[in-house]
Amino acid sequence: MNAREHPAAAMRCAQHTTITGIDTHAHVFARASVFAEQPRYRPASDALLADFLARLDAHGLSHGVLVQPSFLGTDNSYLLRAIAAAPGRLRGIAVVDPHVVAAHPELLDALARSGIVGIRINVLKMADPEYDHPAWRATLRKVAQLHWCVQVHCEARRLPRIVAPLLAYGVDVVVDHFGRPEPTLGIADEGLRYLLTLGATRRVWVKISAAYRNGIGDAASLQTALAALTLLRDAFGLDRLVWGSDWPHTQFEQQLTYEDTHCVMRTLLSSEHERQVVLVDTPAALFKFG
């Protein structure tokens, strides 16, 4: 976190006691940060806290949830510094090594005191988690005790074996990016069809975010998002959906702006009532604001 970020963050955090909208999926990082071994992606530019807060302000959004990016691995220090620089305005989703948690059970408690409200399991194009391992069992028991959520990012076809065991552990689950259906299949993806069956549990939430990752071209992506939203709303109810910008749109930085994703949100959520539920009421409770 460089010095440029602190004054802007400190100035803005005092101005947002009322929740006007929560962007539940964004990343902040600097290219100089420590990277995970063999990261799937290395960003070409920084995504600074001051820039994210400026985008929230420009779009009438008061709060945000920062998600640990995969290329920073389990080093959540940059994320924690960002949350501390804007107290009350931000929450975080961390990435943790379950083996470390088993050895240091106080770690998650410390993260909770710092504004972390869940962990992310990002296994897109990676192996499934070994949920039966004692370390994972200890971690998920602690997550349930803290009333955190587990945020899942994987291909839709893998959702049955990634999400079902989490529900068996008694944790709440947040599924990223419409469930990540295969772009060539769209709403015909069997994984998305499985996701719809989880609405009845009332313990699963879905992020209507990053529509551009689920289609081939802008028009196809929006069409898939609109069709998926109808199905998700019917299966889950509006109160189990949250929105995120996915800023800074990693791997799509040159193609998209925050304004683009905000416009898609307004297309998806066409009424003030819908935006109140999805941008304010639901994420405020789910991510422990207020």
UniProtKB/TrEMBL annotation:
Where exactly are the transmembrane stretches of this chain? none
Q: InterPro entries, per this entry?
A: Amidohydro-rel, Aro_Compnd_Degr_Hydrolases, Metal_Hydrolase
Kindly give the SUPFAM superfamilies that the UniProt entry links to this protein.
Metallo-dependent hydrolases
Concerning Gene3D superfamilies, the annotation shows: Metal-dependent hydrolases
Q: Any idea which GO molecular function terms this record carries? A: hydrolase activity
Coiled-coil regions listed: none
Q: Which domain of life is it from?
A: Bacteria
Q: Where is the Amidohydrolase-related domain?
A: 22-289
Name-wise, this protein is Amidohydrolase-related domain-containing protein
Please give the organism. Answer: Trinickia fusca
Mind giving the lineage of the organism this protein is from?
Bacteria, Pseudomonadati, Pseudomonadota, Betaproteobacteria, Burkholderiales
